[in-house]
User: Fold this.
Amino acid sequence: MFFFSVIILLFSSGLAKAQTAPATKPDENSSAPNLIQATQQYKTSSQQLLALQEKQVSEAGAKLEQLKALVAEGLVAKSELEESEQALAASPGKGRGYAKTDR
Assistant:
């Protein structure tokens, strides 16, 4: 009987300590800087991607203008110009400023 009383006393003191211990939350102090850093990296990479896409659209637009001039001179088939226009329209930047125009 004494043995069971000691065991119950030990378990109850352990349960009491577990009940009074503060609940552990995720460390908010360390996750905030990580989130800020990840957000800054995402912003930087998004800006770099946008710059690359704008460069590609600009280059495709310049090529399109050259093709228009070559089509006007009769040196390039009109179908090649149309393919280039479609490719530019399908690009991520959607070829803003280089919409299909009347020839």
User: Anything to note?
Assistant: The helical segments are 2-20, 28-73, 78-90. The two ends are 103 Å apart (CA to CA). Residues 28-73 form the longest helix (46 residues). Residues 19 and 70 are 82 Å apart (CA to CA).
